[in-house]
Amino acid sequence: MPKYKGVVTTEDRFDASTSDHVHIKLVGMDGESPRKTVSTRHFSFPAGSVFKFELNCKRSVGKLILIELDKTPRLLLPQRSWFPAKIELESPEGETYHFPIHRWITNKESQMFREGTEYVQQNWRKDSLFGYQFLNGVNPMVIRRCLVLPENLPIREDLLFLHGGNSLAEEMQYDWLLAKMYVRSADFSDHQLNSHLLRTHLLAEVFSVSLLRNLPMVHPLYKLLVPHTRYTLQINFLARNLLISDSGVFKTV
What domains does the chain contain, in order, with CATH numbers? Predict the structure, then answer.
């Protein structure tokens, strides 16, 4: 009878543990495994724990496509959320599969997880991934098609465009890679200054100052908002000194 060996790792963070029964089902190219309870008789998965289990099948399910996880509360115990880090499985053929999870599982509904891939590690130099990161990253705020070079751009077209159907990626591979790094760095700086610092921290400072100046401490609205704005002024003070001052990161890097 084929036997799958598994390892469940729970995140080492506050309240990530659960006392619920955890169940798993394997889905492969050649079939599915029965639903298996992987928890123990005692406390199931403490925070930071690594738990090993085995799952027997009547026949091999082939190459694993995904796993299904669900949990049910123990008798007379309340349901607890669970934050697993990953699940690793070794097939009877000796192949190892890695399923990263890194999310809360809060209810009884079955959740599916695909195997983690190393796509970015293997394809980070490709222009297709570079474009994907721009369109799906943290800063796709405004996208405009550039039909002609701007008049104030001090670069001639004969220096920018190549003849004969060639490209910089083909002729100067590492120069092209360095150029993409500069563009990514500039986009990151723009995101941190505009989207993060300006539209998050500095915008919240306006409401924090208004709250402190206009509402007494006994006001219900003050009590509601002050836990969320307690450290706004402090972190903005540090940001001004460390990021945008004359000796800050954006001036010196």
Answer: 3-116 (2.60.60.20), 124-252 (no CATH)
Q: Report how far residue 82's alpha carbon sits from residue 71's, in angstroms, rounded to the nearest whole number.
A: 9
Contact indicator for 116, 101 with CB cutoff of 8 Å: no
Beta bridge partners of 26: 67
For the whole model, what pTM was predicted?
A: 0.55
Digitized pLDDT (tens) for each residue of the chain, 253 residues in all: 788 999 999 999 888 888 888 999 999 999 999 898 887 666 678 888 899 999 888 888 999 999 999 998 888 878 888 999 999 999 988 999 999 999 998 877 889 999 887 788 888 889 888 888 888 777 766 677 778 877 887 776 666 666 665 666 667 788 889 989 998 888 888 888 988 999 999 999 999 999 999 999 999 999 999 999 999 999 999 999 999 999 988 888 7
